[in-house]
TrEMBL record:
One of its GO terms (cellular component) is membrane. Keywords: Membrane, Transmembrane, Transmembrane helix, Transport. This is Amino acid/polyamine/organocation transporter, APC superfamily (TC 2.A.3). The chain crosses the membrane at residues 40-58, 70-89, 110-134, 171-194, 206-226, 238-256, 277-301, 321-344, 374-392, 398-417, 438-455, 467-486, 493-509, 515-533. It is a multi-pass membrane protein. The keyword Transport applies. Pfam families: AA_permease_2, AA_permease_C. PANTHER family: CATIONIC AMINO ACID TRANSPORTER 4 (PTHR43243:SF4), INNER MEMBRANE TRANSPORTER YGJI-RELATED (PTHR43243). Its main location: membrane.
């Protein structure tokens, strides 16, 4: 049974399945190949420049001060290592499915299922939080012109005030509390994703162009009001203070991998997918760093623990009219994030369905629109209904830990890919091989020397169990570092995937023990579904 749990699909089989579509009677063709480099870059920017630049950046700046700009660079480098590994996979396995498909090729079926299940955290559940955030921006925008909706239509039972509960209509004695804007925007985005990738890319391109113009305008205008004294000290709470914002900052970056789910809709995926990911990552990092410097320069960082930091800093310099422009941009930015994630999730389910791990309907391609129609509708329901009733804005850490887990498996998977000789295909991206035999051990020794004091605190049992238990994730990270260092020396592992794996694992340790426990429960739930349905219905199982 252990062999069957880790049975792998060959690249040739995956490419064949993608060309033919689902082979169980549910598939009706292939997807439209219409995406080019500019479209993929726009989709990456659409996914990354969202609520993070309008809200969570304030919390991160409050903890890290002006030095939070360094955190954006560190996170971008971490994502850059992962992006290089994604690019290698995307050029070798140019099909939908993202990390799920890549894991199926290298680690086997059980790991592929686990990563597919964890990606639901990134896409579906993360989108609930984005939809709720969009509702807040939208209602603030309406309130600015005197058309705000009543509280019972923009709230939920978790955070409704006593006044809202009293004002709400009652059915059978129970107050009716709905987040109607969140639900309606999910319905609209689901419809857009359903009717075609062509329409979706045009919408994404337009939204990205608008919000980049607004962000550049805000940066340029804000630069005139920067007081450089606010940048001193640059690291007021030390490097540990900067790292306290890692969850919020990483949550802003997680969308770039959604680009890889559109591989079957690219005109030249082997060349264009890597470029789209890299271009979007670079552009977004530059914008985030500039925004962080402007925010912390306009007001003291201690004032930035607010829900809408961009509007707040301009109010502080008596430019209140900017708030309305920022509100419009925030609505458009979060709409684009919703669109990209609502495109990505159905394509992962489509790939899982092709392999028999989900029912065949999930791989159904609409004969006219050439989209995974059933999977798109299910995604809309799973996001829209909870957004209508629940408050899931607290899932930032949980979403980030699921994404980091996917990045780790992609980086690790590249290490398992057989090296491919250059056969003359110069358009395909190739991850450069850098021998990590001596570099990885040297970097580990250097890291131990530079951070020996905090390392000693994390690995010490001096504070007792109540203190040390929060360092359990770091303890596992230490074990992984030792194992990877030894393997790098013995097997001459490629440096870039190793750095990507270790940096992502380290960021996971900053998420907190509670998030690891919830994530573990989520994975165990996925295993129950796998052994109850997917293991028996797997096409590889039928073939064997």
């Amino acid at each position: 049974m252990s062999k069957s749990l880790f049975r792998r699909k060959s690249i040739s089989t995956i490419l064949k399945d993608a060309r033919e579509g689902a082979t169980d009677g549910h598939g009706t063709g292939t997807l439209h190949r219409v995406l080019k480099v500019k479209d993929l870059t726009a989709m990456g920017i659409a996914a990354v420049i969202g609520a993070g630049i309008f809200s969570t950046i304030g919390e991160a700046s409050f903890h890290g001060g002006p030095g939070v700009s360094i955190l954006f660079v560190i996170t971008a480098i971490t994502c850059g290592f992962s992006a290089l590994c994604y690019a290698e996979f995307a050029s070798r396995v140019p099909v939908s499915g993202s990390a799920y498909t890549y894991s199926y090729v290298t680690f086997g079926e059980l790991t592929a299922w686990i990563i597919g299940w964890s990606l639901i955290l990134e896409y579906a559940i993360g989108n609930i939080a984005v939809a709720i955030s969009w509702s807040g921006y939208f209602n603030n925008l309406l309130a600015g012109i005197g058309m705000g909706l009543p509280g019972w239509l923009t709230s939920n039972y978790d955070n409704a005030s006593p006044e809202t509960l009293a004002a709400a209509p009652h059915i059978a004695g129970l107050p009716v509390i709905l987040n109607l804007p969140a639900f309606l925007v999910v319905v609209f985005i689901t419809w857009l994703a359903y009717v075609g990738i062509q329409e979706s890319k045009r919408s994404a391109n337009a939204m990205v162009a608008f919000k980049i113009l607004i962000i550049i305008f805000v940066i340029v205008l804000g630069a005139f009001y920067v007081n450089t004294d606010n940048w001193n000290p640059f690291l007021p709470n030390g490097f540990s203070g900067v790292l306290r914002g890692v969850s919020a900052v990483f949550f802003a970056y997680i969308g770039f991998d959604a680009v890889s789910t559109t591989a079957e809709e690219c005109t030249n995926p082997q060349r264009d997918l890597p470029r789209g990911m890299f271009y979007s990552l670079i552009i977004c990092t530059v914008l985030y760093v500039l925004i962080a410097l402007v925010l912390t320069g306009m007001v003291p960082f201690t004032d930035l623990k607010v829900a809408d930091p961009l509007a707040f800093v301009f109010d502080a310099v008596n430019l209140r009219w900017i708030s309305y422009i920022i509100s419009i941009s925030a609505v458009i930015a979060t709409t684009s994030v919703l669109l990209v994630f609502q495109i990505g999730q159905p394509r992962i389910w489509m790939s899982m369905s092709r392999d028999g791990l989900l029912p065949g309907r999930f791989s159904r391609i609409h004969p006219r629109f050439k989209t995974p129609s059933f999977a798109t509708i299910v995604t809309g329901i799973l996001v829209g209904v909870p957004a209508l009733f629940l408050n899931l804005t607290i899932v930032t850490d949980l979403t980030s830990i699921g994404t980091l887990f996917a990045f780790i498996l992609v980086c690790g998977g590249v290490l398992l890919l057989p090296r491919e000789e250059n056969n003359g295909n110069t358009s395909r991206f190739r991850l450069p091989y850098i021998n990590g035999q001596w570099i990885v051990p040297a970097l580990v020794v250097l890291g131990i020397f530079l951070f020996r004091a905090p390392l000693g605190e994390k690995l010490s049992f001096a504070g007792g169990w109540e203190v040390w238990k929060h360092n359990i994730p770091f303890f596992f990270f230490t074990i992984v570092v030792i194992v990877i260092t030894v393997l790098s020396f013995l097997r001459k592992l490629s440096l870039i995937p190793v750095l990507g794996l270790l940096s992502c694992f380290y960021l996971m340790t900053e998420m907190g023990l509670k998030n690891w426990i919830v994530f573990a429960v989520w994975l165990l739930t996925g295993l129950v579904i796998y052994f109850g349905y997917s293991y028996r219905n797997s096409k590889l199982n039928a073939a064997n």
